[in-house]
């Protein structure tokens, strides 16, 4: 597939971003969910889980788009967006949206901790991807400069 005369190259970091984002979504829904409300009583942490689920879907969509964008500058910008979403995701449980008061509840022990772990991993992957693109751009710049000097 060719877009703008550039071939799409799916890198290992693209796949890792998609897998990490997908695992986080599955985790929020199954492995480390927030407390479930019963009847008329909905715990405040339920809303933190809903926001985290929405952000995890956004991360999956961005990861998928990131795979098929051929331009390294756009991918670099998307890597910065991944980091911003990850920081926001870490701030949601307990800071932006309150969690249960008891430290024994799953939302405090599971959701909050696993959100931090997954988002740190996502930030590190996005930073590595950004570093690769910046190194590639720097190498191309030096190559053009050397060719210009020899002509």
Description of the molecule:
27% of the residues are buried. Helix content is 73%, strand content 3%. It has one domain (9-150). By secondary structure, the chain is mostly helical. Strands 1-2 form a two-stranded antiparallel ribbon. It has helices at residues 12-31, 44-68, 72-91, 106-150; strands at residues 2-3, 6-7. Helix 1 (12-31) runs antiparallel to helix 2.
List descriptors:
single chain; 151 residues; mainly alpha; two-stranded antiparallel sheet; 4 helices; 73% helix; 3% strand; elongated
Strand count:
2
Give the uncertain stretches in residue-range form.
Answer: none
Q: Give the CA-CA distance, first to last residue.
A: 34 Å
Tell me the domain tally.
1
| Number of contiguous helices | 4
> How much beta, percentage-wise?
under 5%
Any idea what the shape is? elongated
Radius of gyration: 20 Å
Average pLDDT value? 80
Which structural class do the helices and strands define? mainly alpha
> Biggest sheet: strands side by side, in what order?
1-2
The string of secondary-structure elements, in order, is: EEHHHH
Query: Residue share in helices?
Result: over 70%
Could you give a short description of this structure?
This protein is mainly α and 151 residues long.
Describe the SSE topology.
Layout: E1 2-3, E2 6-7, H1 12-31, H2 44-68, H3 72-91, H4 106-150
Helix pairs in contact: 1-2, 1-4, 2-3, 3-4
């Amino acid at each position: 597939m060719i877009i703008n005369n550039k071939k799409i190259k799916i890198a290992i970091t693209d796949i890792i971003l998609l897998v990490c984002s997908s695992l986080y979504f599955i985790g929020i829904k199954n492995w480390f969910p927030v407390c479930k409300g019963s009847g008329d009583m909905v715990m405040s942490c339920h809303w933190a889980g809903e926001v985290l689920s929405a952000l995890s879907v956004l991360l999956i969509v961005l990861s998928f788009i990131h795979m098929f964008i051929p331009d390294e500058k756009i991918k670099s910008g998307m890597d910065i967006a991944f980091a911003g979403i990850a920081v926001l995701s870490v701030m949601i449980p307990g800071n932006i949206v309150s969690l249960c008061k008891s430290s024994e509840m799953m939302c405090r022990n599971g959701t909050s901790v696993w959100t931090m772990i997954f988002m740190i991993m996502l930030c590190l992957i996005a930073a590595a991807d950004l570093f690769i693109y910046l190194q590639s751009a720097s190498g191309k710049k030096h190559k053009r400069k050397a060719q210009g000097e020899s002509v």
